User: Fold this.
Amino acid sequence: MLILLMAVMMFTLTAGSCLMVQKSNITLDLSGKDYKFHFNPLSSGNTFRESAAFEDLFSIEAQQIIRYAVIRNQMENNGSFDGEKRVDITAYANRFKILEKPYVTAIYSLKDMLLWGRYGVEYEYVAGSDTESELYPLIASSDPEDNVEYYSPGVGYRMVIDRYETVDGLELEDVASDLEEYYKLSGYLKTTVDNLSYNYQEYQRYLEDYATENTNMRYVVRLFVDGSYVYYTNDDRIESLWLSPGKETEINSLYYKDGAYLFFDPGNVSYSNSLGLNSMTMVEMLKDYEYVYSDESKIWISVLSEGDFPVQDSFVTLQKAYNEVIPKWWLYFAIIALSGGAFLVLFIYTTVKEEARVPLPFFDRTPLEILIAFFLGILLLCVYSVYTLNSLVLYELLDKLNYSITVATIITIAGIFLLIFYFCFVRKCKSGQLGYYSFVGKSLRKERSFVRGFWKVIASVYDRSSVTFHVLLPVLFVAGINIFLTYEAIYDWNHSTRYIVLLVLFNLFVLIHRFRKQMQFDTIMDGIDEIRSGALDYQVDLKGLSGDEKKIAEALNDMEIGIRDAVDISTRDEKLKADLITNVSHDIKTPLTSIINYIDLLKRENIQNENARRYIEVLDQKAQRLKQLTEDLVEASKISSGNIKLYPEPILFLELMNQALGEFSEKFDQKHLTVVTDYNSDRSMIFVDPRQMWRIMENLLNNIYKYAMPETRVYVSLDHDFRDDKNFVVFSVKNISAQRLNIDASELTERFIRGDVSRSTEGSGLGLSIARNLTEAMGGSFTIYLDGDLFKVTLEFLEYKGN
Amino acid sequence: MANILVCDDDKEIVEAVEIYLEQEGYHVLKAYDGEEAIAILNKEQVDLLVIDVMMPRLDGIHAIRKIRENNSIPIIILSAKTEDADKILGLNIGADDYVSKPFNPLELVARVKSQLRRYTRLGNKNEDNENVLNVGGLCINNETKEVTVDGELVKLTPIEFNILYLLAKNQGKVFSINQIYESIWNEEAIGADNTVAVHIRHIREKIEINPKEPRYLKVVWGVGYKIEKQ
Assistant:
C-alpha cells in the first residue's frame, strides 16, 4: 500500500535529518568545563582550519591560556612551581582595586595556603570575657558598642584557629591592631586561601593540558613583575633562556606564520589576530585580568600550523568529528532530499489523481469535525513528545544513533496516522462530499434545523442581490477577517502565534475556494470554446459547479440546445426547399415530355389541313417555351439559393469570348447582326468556373439574339481597369434593342420582368437574372446600362495573376 | 431486325417511343416497371433496352444493376432526373447512355442506332495504319480524307477535316483557338477572331448526335477545344 511506502520515506527522511543534526554538534571537555561546538553544513567548502568550529575552539583555548598565565604568575617562580612564594593576602584580596600604601597585611607562604586550602579555613568561637584567648587583647581594646558585628550572641567572637602562621610565625591577632582590622584580615585570609586553592586545581589541569607535548597551542606571555620582565611559555621552538624584549621581533615572525594567532600589546594598544576579530573583542578577552596584564605585558598565542595537528589534543578530536560530517554532508543531504522528494511525489500523486465520485466507504463517513480534531491531536502529541525527548535526560542516556531512531519512529508512526486522516480528507473532497458527513452539514440538511433556516435566509438575500454585491460581499468578508486577525496578533503580541495560525489557515481556505471557482470558470470557458468551434452537441458537465458558475453553465447548455435546434430546422428547411424544386420540376417534365413527343408525332403525320398545321406549329412553339421555362426555373432557383457547386479555374477571357461568339455566329447571321469586337487585353486571365461562365455568355448573347434590332451592330469589348490597387478585367456588350425599353435597369434583372410589358414575345425573364446571380456568385460584378434603345451589360472580374 | 425493349411507367411515353422506333424498322417490346422488364429480358431476345428511372415496384437503377449481373446489352436511360449526379449514377451502374426528358425523339433514335452499331460490330480492329484514326465511333482516314461516325459517312470541308484531324491525332489534348489557327493556316492569329470557333461549331453539328451535348468534340471554355478520349 502506498501509505506504507510513504511511511518508509518519512522514516528515512527524519532519521537522516536527525543523524545529520546530531553529527553537526559535539561537546568537548576542555580543562574541566564543557563546551558545545556546532558544524555548519553550509560552510562545507571549508577545511577544518577554515571552519567556525576551529575558530571557536582556538578562542576558548586562548582564553584559557590567558587565565593560565595569570595563575602561573601566582604559583610560579622562574618558570616552575614555587611553594615558598610569598602571598600578601591584602594585596591579593584587593587585586582588582588600587590599594593605598601603607596597608596592613599578612604574608604567608604559598605552600601553607594551599595546604590549609585543602580543609578550608577553620574557625572557633571565644567568649568576650575569656581573658585567656588570644583574641582578648583586641576585644578589650575595642569599643563594646562597635563589637556587635563581630559577635554572634550565644556563641561568642569568631576567631580563626591557631594554625595559620605567617612567614614570620605570627598569627593574625598579632598583626591586626584592632578587632576591625582582625576581621578584615581574617576575611582576606579566607578569600585568598579559597581562591588560591581553586586556582591551584586549575593550575594542575592547565599544567597538564598546555604542556608542550599535550597541546597544539603555543604561547608566550610577558609580564612585568617587581620591576622586571617575566616570560611564561610552552613553546619549544624558542629557547626560554633566550626570551628578552630584544628577541620579541623574532617571536612575532614565528607566531605570525602559525596556523592561527593572537597578539596582545596593551601598552601600544595593538591587538592583531588571524581570525578577523576586532580589537574590542580582544580587549574583552583580557577583561578580568587587567590587574595582571598591564601596559608592560604582551601575549602571543597560536596554533601549530603543520597540516594535521601533531599532538592529539582537542583540536584533533574536533577535527575528527568535523570530518565525519562535513565531507559527507552531501551524502546525508542527498538521502534526505531523495526521500523527501519521493515522499512529496507520492503524496501529490495520491492526492491529485482524478477519482470518480463514489459513495464513501464507512471509514470516510466519519464527521469532518472529529477528523480535524484527531488530526490536530496527533500532530500536537508528536511535536510535544519530540520536544521533550530533546530536552530530557533521555537524550544523554540514548546514544546518538538510538536517539535518531527513536525520534524517527515517533514521527513515522504519527505520520502514518496523519496520512490516513489526510487521505480520508482528500477522498471526501474529491467525491464532493466534504461537508456532507459533518455535524454542521447534518444540521444543514435536517429539514427544520435552525442552522438550515438561517443559511437559507442568507442564501436568498445573496441570490437577489446585484453583481456588485456579489463581488463586494466576499471581498469585504475576507478583508474584514484578515484585518481583525492581524490586529489581534499585533495587539496581543504574547499570544500572537495563535492568531497568525488562524490567519494562515483562513487565507488558505479562501485561496482554495478561489481556486475551485477558477477551475469551474475554466470548465465553462472550455465549453464555450467547443461551441464556438462548432461542436453543437457539447454539453458542459454540471458536476462540480456551484453557485453562479452553475447558473452560467446551465444557461449555456440551454442556449446550445436552442442553437442546435434552430440550425437543424434551418438545414431541414433548406433541404425541403431544394427537394421541392427538384420534385416539382420532375413532375412537370414528365407530362411535358409526352406533350412534346406527340406534337412531334403530329408534325410527322401528313396533315393537309392548313389551319391544323398552323395550330400544331403554335403548339410546338409553346411546348418548347414551356420546356425552356422549366429548365430556367430550376437553374435560377438553384443559383439564387446558393445550391450550385462552382469549380473555378484560371481561364483566358479572350478565348472564352471567341468561343462564345463562334457558337452564336449563325444565329447572329440569321438576324443580320454584325459583331464588332474591341479588345484591349490579350492574355488576361480570370479565376472562374468555365462552364458557368459559358452559361453567362450564352445568356447574354441569347438575350441579344432575341431582343436586338435586326441588321444592327453588336459591340463587344474586353478591357482592363485599375482601381483600388487591383486589376480588373472588364467585358461589355452593347446592342440596340428592337423594342422600346421603358423600365430602368434594376427592374430588368428582377425575375419575371422583361423588356416589354406586354409579354408577348418569346423567352422567359429569367435569363438576365440567372446571369447576374452566376456572375456575382463567382465574385464578379454585373451591371446593366440603359439609354434610349441602347442596352449595355458590363461584367467585371478580378484579374488572375498566375500561381 | 433488332428487338428493343422500352420500359417506362408512363404509357404515353412508351407508345410515343414505340412509334419512333418502329418507323426506323425496329421491333419494340414494352414494359411499365423494372420487374416486368427483367421478366421480358429473361424470356425474349432483346438487343437494346430503353429504361426510365422513376418507376414503381422496381426502379430503373436497381433494375439495371440486376440486369447487368448477367447481361451486357446496351442500355439507354431515359429520365426526367437531369442532375449530373443522376447521370453519373446511371452511367456508373451500367447504362451506356443517358437521355434527359423532355427529349428530342430524333436524338433518341440516333443514339439507339449508335449503340446498336457499336454493340453488334464485333471487334473494331485498329488497322495499324498511322493515317487512320479511330476515336470511339469516329473514324478519320487521312489518306482518303474521309470521316465516318458509327459507319456513316460525314461530309467535312478541308479546313474542318484538318481541324478534326489535328484534334483527333492528339486525343485529350486541349488546343486554344490560336494554336489551332496557327497550326492550320500557318499564320499568326490576329486575336479576336472567331473563325476557328465557327468551324468547330460546324464540325460539331455534323458529327455529333446532339451538338449541345457533344461526345467527341468538346469545348473547354476559356481554354480551347479537344477531342475527348474514348
